[in-house]
Amino acid sequence: MVAEWSVGLFDCFGDFRTCCLTCWCPCVTFGRIAEIADKGSTSCCMHGTLYVLLGSIGCNWLYSCTKRSSMWAQYNFQGSPCMDCFVHMCCESCALCQEYKQLENRGFNMSKGISPC
Which of 45, 26, 47 is nearest to 100 (CA)? Predict the structure, then answer.
């Protein structure tokens, strides 16, 4: 059975805390998402650092869309790799907020992740 996202892509402002974190420190938001999507195989700090480095050449969205794909595959959400890349390329902050909130809704404590960051 395919699951629906419990948070809409443009529901960024529904959670002001996550919205602000993503606006000013997207590397933290992404690092926390990626650590959980990868089941703790790499720390949020490592993911966040790579995100910043790729952002310096404008390619951070390529990295973040792979974690979105991992999430929908892991939790059986609707999605496709092409759409994931399109969403992250066009609206990176909204995509990160949606993923972050989705994981929170699944019971993850995002500030702790799988292992402390």
Answer: 26
**Is residue 9 domain-resident?**
no
Instruction: At 106, list the tokens.
Output: 């699944």
The amino acid at residue 44 is C
The answer, yes or no, to whether residue 29 has pLDDT greater than 60, is yes
% the chain with pLDDT above 90: 56
The answer to the question of residue 111 being in a domain is no
Write b or e for each residue in 75-114: b if 16 or more Cβ atoms lie within 10 A of its Cβ, otherwise e: eebebeeeebbebbeebbebbbbbbbbbbbeeebebeebb
DSSP state of 114: S
What was the pLDDT predicted at 117? 43
CB 98 within 8 A of CB 11: yes
Q: Nearest-CA neighbor of 48 among 67, 31, 62?
A: 31
